[in-house]
Amino acid sequence: MTQPSTVQLIEAVVGSTRVFSKAVNSVVEDEILPEAGESRLTRVQLTALKLIDQYGSQTLGELAGLLDVSSAAACKLVDRLVRRSLIKRAEGKSDRRLTQLILTPFGRDVLHQYESRKTDMLARTFESFSPDDLAKTVRVLEKLSAALIRNSNRSEEICLQCYMHGDTCSVRKAIPEECRSLKRRLRNRDLTRVKEVSA
């Protein structure tokens, strides 16, 4: 039997990761969101709830920076979530001129339902894989991601939004550069505070 060439193996890896990513989005999120009692909740809205929960109360500028969207897009998103009683606007604790975004009890409950169902589904899905297999897969994917970015002509511009999936950027561990996304998020936060204070 002829062994596949390196090019064929690389294409297989890239194709497999795309299929896996699509499976996560289509199966995990699209099937679980309706079960969480919020069939009209979009992935972006879910991501916003997760970020507000993960990082605590935030300003509109901070949320826009984390989502990598414009302030106008973030404002529309926040308005929808407020109308649906998933989040609320509140005065800043340290500066009353700042508007903070906070999950409501209902929003926290919806997010908890989603995360609980997702955990159950993923536990069933991955029960046949050993912890060692899963850890090896993580390491391989991190190395592949880092290699792709390292060989890009615009590596300093690329943001994988790792903060949406954990506290640290696994790729930046392998590429010793300051996280562009973190810098932008901090800049947006400072600009938002300047605008809100001067208003």
How does the SSE layout of this entry go?
Layout lengths: L5 H30 L7 H13 L4 H8 L3 H13 L3 E5 L7 E5 L1 H21 L5 H20 L19 H5 L5 H19 L1
Antiparallel strand pairs: 1-2
Helix pairs in contact: 1-5, 3-4, 3-8
List keywords for this structure.
about 200 residues, mainly alpha, 2 strands, disordered C terminus
Structural class by SSE content: mainly alpha
Strand content: 5-15%
CATH class of the domain at 23-129 and 179-198: Mainly Alpha
CATH architecture annotation of the domain at 23-129 and 179-198: Orthogonal Bundle
Q: How many helix segments?
A: 8
Query: Can you list the strand order of the major beta sheet?
Result: 1-2
Shape: globular
Question: Major β-sheet, in short?
Answer: 2 strands, antiparallel
CATH topology of the domain at 23-129 and 179-198: Arc Repressor Mutant, subunit A
- Low-confidence residue ranges: 191-199
CATH H-tier superfamily of the domain at 23-129 and 179-198: Winged helix-like DNA-binding domain superfamily/Winged helix DNA-binding domain
Averaged pLDDT: 78
The helix content is: 55-70%
What is Rg? 20 Å
Quaternary status? single chain
Question: Using DSSP, what is the number of strands?
Answer: 2
